[in-house]
């Protein structure tokens, strides 16, 4: 006995509708930090390419068990400029040695074919590279290839964009629970400083100069931050960032004579283990393999540069170094707390920043805490 075809279609219609609805319900729409609306299915994000390897800092918060298991390609900046951290992750997850090194996404030799060969589902980029991605045609090419792209920002406007970046990544990577848990912790840690700093009058606040990558190139000085990134964190910590008033952009180059003639209450240089990328560097080699002895020796050498020893900030020992990679990481609240303790030691005498950084590792990261991440001139 045969059934009427139209009858069968009617009979199956509700089931077909449910199936179609279930399939479409898996697709979500997110708005990334560039304001772009992106539709995707989190369940189908299996292969990820990172525009910067240091996005590892963020992914690690969302998957403590194996944060890079879906990463098939990246730029080698983590390996080059934070080798201490890379070796930590390599020891925990030896398979990351097989991640494809793709170089800069904006260079002429960047291979879209390789991206496609890797079956890439998602490309994660930093907001600061939006214009480059547009002008190079990268976004258009990726779109034509069916590869989803989202922009995050932990660098330009860290206090403004960290939370929405993590919320968006949590949705895209199907890790909302982990994202929300860290965000709760992040807000709590930021408020440990903001609650006190709000009471400080403008005339009480010290003038602070940040030297970005101090000593990276021994023959060049000096780069600093405007009212963004670590410059913004100085302001949030109750200081007055010198660059916020002098530089309109994200960062800029400053004539060393400015430092020698301006009134600066505090000077903070940034440092990291750049000795492998630049063997001639005189920077303070902060990071997971750093020691206090070498960090102090390097910091003293920076203070002994021609003319610097006469600066008020150096004479009063208000001369410091802080881990450069805080500038591109959700962990920047550690830098914020460190700054606040330097500016207002009495107000923050009970704030144990190192203990908080250890707790961050224990609760949220797959690697353990070690090394030195800030240093004070003795």
Automatic annotation (TrEMBL):
InterPro entries: ABC_Transporter_SBP, ABC_transptr_periplasmic_BD. Keywords: Signal. Residues 1-25 form the signal peptide. The keyword Cell division does not apply. The keyword Signal applies. Gene3D superfamilies: Nitrogenase molybdenum iron protein domain. Residues 47-351 form the Fe/B12 periplasmic-binding domain. This is ABC transporter substrate-binding protein. It comes from Marinomonas ushuaiensis DSM 15871. The lineage of its organism: Bacteria, Pseudomonadati, Pseudomonadota, Gammaproteobacteria, Oceanospirillales.
């Amino acid at each position: 006995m045969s059934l009427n075809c139209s009858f069968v279609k009617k009979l199956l219609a509700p089931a077909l509708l449910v199936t179609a609805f279930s399939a479409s319900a898996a697709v979500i729409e997110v708005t990334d930090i560039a304001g772009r609306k992106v539709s995707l299915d989190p369940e189908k994000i299996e292969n990820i390419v990172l525009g910067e390897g240091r996005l590892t800092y963020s992914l690690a918060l969302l998957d403590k068990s194996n944060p890079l298991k879906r990463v098939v390609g990246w730029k080698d900046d983590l390996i080059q400029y934070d080798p201490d951290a890379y070796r930590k992750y390599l020891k925990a997850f030896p398979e990351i040695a097989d991640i494809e090194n793709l170089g800069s996404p904006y260079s002429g030799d960047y291979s879209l074919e390789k991206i496609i060969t890797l079956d890439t589902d998602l490309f994660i980029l930093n907001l600061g590279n939006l214009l480059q991605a547009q002008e190079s045609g990268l976004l258009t090419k990726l779109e034509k290839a069916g590869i989803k792209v989202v922009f995050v920002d932990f660098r330009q406007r860290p206090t403004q964009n960290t939370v929405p970046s993590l919320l968006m990544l949590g949705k895209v990577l199907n890790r909302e629970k982990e994202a929300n848990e860290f965000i709760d912790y992040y807000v709590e840690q930021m408020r440990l400083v903001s609650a006190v700093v709000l009471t400080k009058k403008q005339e009480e606040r010290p003038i602070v100069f940040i030297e970005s990558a101090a000593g990276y190139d021994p023959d060049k000085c000096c780069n600093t931050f405007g009212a963004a990134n670590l410059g913004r964190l100085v302001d949030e910590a109750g200081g007055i960032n010198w660059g916020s008033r002098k530089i309109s952009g994200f960062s800029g180059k400053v004539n060393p004579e400015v430092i020698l003639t301006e009134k600066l209450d505090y000077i903070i240089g940034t440092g990291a283990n750049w000795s492998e990328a630049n063997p001639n560097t005189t920077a303070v080699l902060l990071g997971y393999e750093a020691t206090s002895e070498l960090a102090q020796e390097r910091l003293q050498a920076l203070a002994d540069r021609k003319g610097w020893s006469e600066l008020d900030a150096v004479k009063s020992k208000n001369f410091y170094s802080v881990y450069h990679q805080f500038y591109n990481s959700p962990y920047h609240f550690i830098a914020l707390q460190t700054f606040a303790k330097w500016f207002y030691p009495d107000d923050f005498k009970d704030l144990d920043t190192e203990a908080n950084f250890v707790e961050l590792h224990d609760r949220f990261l797959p690697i353990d805490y070690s090394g030195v991440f800030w240093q004070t001139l003795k």
